[in-house]
Design a protein that fits this description.
Helix 1 packs across helix 2, helix 7 crosses helix 9 and helix 7 crosses helix 10. The protein is an alpha/beta fold. Helix 6 links the parallel strand 7 and strand 8. Bound molecules: 1,4-dihydronicotinamide adenine dinucleotide. Keywords: NAD, Oxidoreductase.
């Protein structure tokens, strides 16, 4: 199967990054969100990221413009009608994703693969909202997408071998390293990572150390490139909470219980970098 045209649904931090790497790999790309204002914000993020690549001498100004020229904005899912692959990257809520997959199933051509960038939700359940569960797969990119090498690939119960192979090959074309993982809550990446992030938030909640203290201990002590609280701010605290809820409900194990401080920050609208305030202040 030959993939030529890709639609990315959701133009937030992940969707814009995925659209960028798709266009960089030479694919015709459609970037979709609820309205064009949001899509244009996503396109601005892509422009800034590509400008940095130009500054670093990794691409030329002409290549930057060619890449941008391959990305078309969209505020209608009907634009999936001539796409070979759709990668969904909207908010981490099953009801929102389920509705989008059911709609995409009606619009996208029968051969099209429907992929989700979900951090933790069951691929099998998302696939069950369509009449093509064998063509639904998890394609979990890391943040920031243009810089991070990993793509965790998750097969649902019914995902076909052909679809898996197409997505594995596509990940390599996007200059990523694909790793296969089973369809369990949080897969491998977030099952491990979010426990650490949640524990760091519990440390803060209990007054064990300051925000900076906790992050410095983990950075210098474990040789991590950034501390868990800074990483939570980068991921988005709403997304961190959503993933912890999936882990907590999915395994029924209290070790995943989200810290009340995280819930409070999300209720306050302190979602991290994207809102200018999280554990750190970005304004
Ligand atoms: P975000 O909050 O930056 O973007 C979400 C986007 O979805 C927003 O632009 C919103 O307008 C759009 N959206 C919401 N409902 C929609 C609908 N019905 N139709 C079209 N667009 C809609 O979130 P982010 O961080 O980009 O996360 C997106 C997905 O990627 C989530 O499933 C998340 O779990 C996953 N993910 C997030 C990572 C992170 O570090 N933030 C890393 C890997 C995966």
């Amino acid at each position: 199967m030959d993939i030529k045209k890709i639609m990315v649904v959701g133009a937030g931090q992940m969707g814009s990054g995925i659209a960028q790497v798709a266009a960089q790999a030479g694919f015709e790309t459609v970037l979709h969100d609820l309205n064009l204002d949001i899509v244009n914000k996503g396109l601005e993020t892509i422009k800034k990221s590509l400008a940095k690549f130009v500054e670093k001498g990794k691409i030329t100004e002409a290549e930057k413009n060619e890449i941008l020229g391959r990305i078309k904005p969209s505020d209608s899912l009907k634009n999936a009608a001539d796409c070979d692959l759709v990668i969904e990257a909207v908010v981490e809520k099953m009801e929102v994703k389920a509705k989008i997959f059911a709609e995409l199933d009606q619009i996208a051509p029968p051969h099209a693969i429907l992929a989700t960038n979900t951090s933790s939700l069951p691929i099998t359940e998302i696939a069950a909202t369509t009449k093509r569960p064998e063509r639904v797969i998890g394609m979990h990119f890391m943040n920031p997408v243009p810089l991070m090498k990993l793509v965790e690939i998750i097969r649902g119960l019914q995902t076909s071998d052909e679809v898996y192979q197409v997505i594995e090959e596509l990940s390599r074309k996007m200059d990523k390293v694909p790793v296969e993982c089973k369809d369990v809550p949080g897969f491998v990446s977030n099952r491990v990572l979010q426990v650490m992030i949640n524990e760091a938030i519990w440390c803060l909640y209990e007054g064990v150390a300051s925000v900076e203290g906790i992050d410095t201990i983990m950075k210098l002590g474990m040789n991590h490139p950034m501390g868990p609280l800074a990483l939570a701010d980068l991921i988005g605290l709403d997304t961190v909470l959503a993933i912890l809820e999936v882990l907590y409900n999915g395994y029924g194990d209290p070790k995943y219980r989200p810290c009340p401080l995280l819930r409070q920050y999300v209720k306050a609208g302190w979602l991290g970098r994207k809102t200018g305030r999280g554990f750190y202040n970005y304004s």
